[in-house]
């Protein structure tokens, strides 16, 4: 008995649909679990205050293109990162908000406060 093209699609479509659905749900769950794990790890890390120098600053701009009823538009988002050098030469990179990014200047010296991977502040000396 030959199923033909339509019979084959009737068989493959549910399998493909379920596979794609499972991948999307799996990625969503993975992202949530990773975020909760990082949050928990940061909360259980000691709050540290160390001498540091602002070594570098950089921005990561993401551009997103959208099509809506034939109209094309784009949006962008910017993430801000600051690299600090602490005593002993170790370099730590933290994501900061736009205001903090503008406030910090390369070669500033001061006290860096952080908890795990969470940036808490920098006080210039």
UniProtKB/TrEMBL annotation:
Keywords annotated in UniProt: Membrane, Transmembrane, Transmembrane helix
Keyword Transmembrane helix: yes
Statement: the UniProt record of this protein carries the keyword Transmembrane: yes
Pfam families: DUF2500
Transmembrane segments: 12-33
Name by which UniProt lists this protein: DUF2500 domain-containing protein
Source organism: Dielma fastidiosa
